[in-house]
Design goal:
Helices cover 34% and strands 20% of the residues. The chain has 10 helices and 11 strands. α8 packs antiparallel against α9 (230-241). The longest helix is centred in the last third of the chain and has 18 residues, at 243-260.
Length: 276
């Protein structure tokens, strides 16, 4: 992980973009890049479009005029599924200074979209007052593991697991609809049943996404496993040869467990096939 961080303020021409995600009509990304440095992050592909050659996790472009480029007439967003954020975290540490996400939310509330917001940060609690202005709003925290020592290795600049769980509790107490995004599921590492048990009293829904190993993600994960758990590395390499069967089995187990325990949930396994 690079110790140097490159923060650049940029102006943009547009912010709200059409989405090809399964449950989103539009997406908003107040920042380009991310500082969490998650070894499994798929969003590193945006480097191809931003001109950055720094390591993923070491740069962020701050879209300082975000709120100003939101259309004054937002009728086309009314009732539409709008997701924050698809290739960054809307509550990076930088949000404390720039307050871009908050300014965006303040403008969006009058448009009455169906808002979903997902983060790895407890900073989201700061904006409960604005989030409660939305008629439809779901706020999610990503939890990949309950082991914070592991979290520190795979999500080195993200906040601790306990801070995320505490944020979920506070969001629920404020009357907001909450969800936990358990993803990507890391085989033999992510204990999704324990995550549910720890959070079910203040979580309305669980979303699951499988680990998709390809390109630099594969290189990063295999390198990490090679240092920390060589036996697990061998298992991952075996999974790759029978990937479809493995994830079908995991998906069925999740479905059966959630049905038996009355857990509201949705699978986003290989979600390219689920796109509209």
């Amino acid at each position: 992980m690079s110790s140097e961080i490159n923060i650049t303020e940029v102006n943009i021409k547009s912010l709200i973009t059409a989405s090809n995600l399964p449950d989103a009509d539009y997406v908003i990304n107040p920042y380009s890049g991310c500082l969490h440095s998650c070894i499994y992050c798929y969003a590193r592909f945006i480097k191809r479009f931003t001109g950055h050659d720094e390591p993923w996790g070491s740069f962020v472009d701050v879209k300082i005029n975000c709120a100003q480029v939101i259309p004054h007439n937002g009728n086309k967003f009314k009732g539409k599924a709008l997701f924050m954020s698809s290739v960054t975290d809307p509550y990076l540490e930088l949000e404390k200074k720039y307050k871009l996400t908050r300014s965006i939310l303040e403008k969006l509330a009058e448009f009455e979209p169906d808002l979903s917001i997902q983060t790895k940060s407890d900073l989201v609690v700061r904006d409960c007052d604005v989030l409660k202005r939305f008629n439809k709003c779901r706020v999610g925290l990503t939890i990949t593991t309950l082991d914070d020592a592991v979290r520190a290795q795979i999500e080195p600049r993200a906040v601790s697991v306990e801070r995320r769980i505490a944020a979920l509790k506070r969001l629920k107490r404020q009357g907001l609809t909450t969800y936990v995004f358990i993803g990507p599921l890391l085989p033999f590492i992510t204990d999704w049943k324990e995550i549910i048990k720890r959070t079910k009293d203040f979580t309305d829904c669980y979303y699951f996404e499988n680990l998709n190993i390809y390109g630099t993600i594969k290189k990063n994960i295999y390198a990490w496993l090679g240092k920390h758990d060589k036996d697990c590395l061998a298992k991952y390499m075996s999974i790759q040869s029978k990937r479809t069967v493995f994830w079908e089995t995991v998906g069925q187990e999740i479905q059966e467990y959630c049905a038996a325990h009355n857990i509201n949930h949705k699978l986003y396994f290989d979600h390219k096939a689920q796109r509209k």
